[in-house]
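User: Just a sanity check before I run the rest of the batch. Below are the structure tokens for the first item. I only need the designed sequence back.
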């Protein structure tokens, strides 16, 4: 019944997929892999294989320390990283391609899942943040492939929906061999929904490394600084903005410039299909502007920079005087604040951070982030941070210290995976 319903939903969505394929070139390049027809390079080569599934950008970035730690702990194993979204795929290829194979996760039909499993032949599967697919889990169970959920999280919305059909979900949750959850609340929710062998490991996102430790990231940062002279004036970075927020950010920046005339703004939209739309909004703002993809020798002094690339936002944070993390002015759930925190930057988020509630609460408890009560506070908060150096420095230092105080989830996760492989 589930497979039939999945097929009906897929067919109903075909017009949308076709539109996105024609207009935004989405879904075209990954369809073959999503149907389970993986490239020959992913075929079993005799080594034991660990398959990590990361869904999108957030999970992929969270997996960076885990993948590196697994590579070091199990150098004889082959690592395969899968994602669902194109943006997640781009980040995975950038971060992992030197020591892991990267592919798309198959659609959850039994025949597509069987194709993918027959090619990869994993010794174990690690799912990031509790994305469960019934046919995939059933086929893993049939092949006696252990499945571990790492960095598990069950949001308020997901828990409320799942609780209504708890009896139907219980067999699904029990097909997972082991659960490593971010918090006690997440662990209790997983247990309530039927999960067995549940422990709290902490949040992998805190183990994202040290600022500037990646040679590739440093090279990207240097290139961007040369193109746009990012250190020339106070730079506000608005990262991972979502639809409806860019207008608010631009309006707040226009108001700020009346008092802080030297400030510059860099906007990095979350989704690539919105790059052109945001470029039009910036052009209509009246400020001089440039796009990362159109950079030339005439653009270094632009007042607004549009970062219309994937995977370069982390390199920009080190040049920020203030960071605003998007997805939070509107009820989208927010995005990760840890990358700018690594650089000790003062961070602002909007009222809606429910997808990162635990991290946000920890930062608020340690006075390491400013969460706006209303969107109208954005301009005044920017102005305070740009004019009160001591306050901005204290906020940034607290952010860096908050990361240091919460590390350790990666080691606990790798130890659990090692136990699974015995």
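Assistant: Here's the designed sequence for the first item:
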């Amino acid at each position: 019944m589930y497979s039939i319903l999945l097929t009906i939903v897929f067919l109903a969505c075909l017009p949308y997929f076709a539109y996105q394929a024609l207009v935004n070139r989405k879904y075209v390049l990954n369809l073959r892999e999503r149907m389970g027809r993986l490239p020959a390079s992913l075929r079993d080569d005799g080594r034991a294989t660990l398959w990590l599934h990361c869904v999108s950008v957030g999970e992929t970035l969270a997996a960076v320390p885990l993948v590196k730690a697994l590579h070091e702990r199990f150098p004889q194993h082959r690592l395969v990283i899968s994602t669902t979204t194109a943006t997640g795929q781009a980040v995975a290829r950038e971060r992992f391609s030197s020591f892991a194979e990267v592919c798309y996760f198959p659609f959850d039909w039994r025949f597509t899942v069987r194709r993918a499993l027959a090619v990869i032949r994993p010794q174990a599967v690690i799912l990031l943040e509790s994305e469960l697919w019934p046919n995939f889990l059933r086929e893993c169970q049939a092949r006696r492939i252990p499945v571990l959920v790492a960095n598990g999280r069950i949001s308020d919305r997901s828990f409320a929906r799942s609780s209504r059909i708890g009896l139907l979900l219980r067999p699904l949750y029990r097909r997972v061999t082991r659960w490593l959850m971010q918090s006690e609340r997440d662990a209790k929710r997983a247990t309530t929904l039927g999960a067995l062998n549940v422990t709290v490991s902490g949040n992998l996102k805190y183990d994202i490394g040290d600022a500037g430790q990646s040679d590739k990231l440093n090279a990207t940062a240097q290139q961007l600084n040369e193109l746009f002279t990012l250190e020339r004036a106070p730079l506000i970075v608005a990262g991972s903005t979502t639809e409806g927020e860019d207008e608010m950010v631009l309006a707040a920046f226009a108001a700020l410039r009346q008092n802080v005339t030297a400030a510059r703004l860099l906007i990095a939209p979350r989704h690539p299909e919105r790059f052109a739309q945001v470029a039009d909004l910036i052009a209509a703002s009246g400020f001089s502007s440039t796009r990362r993809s159109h950079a030339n020798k005439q653009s270094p002094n632009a007042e607004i920079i549009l970062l219309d690339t994937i995977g370069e936002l982390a390199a920009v944070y080190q040049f920020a005087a203030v960071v605003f993390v998007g997805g939070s002015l509107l009820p989208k759930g927010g995005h990760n604040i840890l990358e700018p925190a690594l650089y000790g930057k003062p961070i602002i988020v909007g009222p809606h951070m429910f997808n990162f509630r635990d991290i946000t609460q920890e930062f608020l408890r340690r006075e390491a982030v400013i969460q706006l009560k209303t969107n109208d506070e954005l301009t005044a908060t920017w102005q305070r941070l740009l004019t009160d150096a001591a306050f901005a420095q204290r906020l940034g230092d607290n952010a860096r210290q908050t990361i240091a105080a919460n590390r350790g989830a990666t080691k606990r996760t790798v130890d659990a995976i090692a136990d699974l492989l015995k």
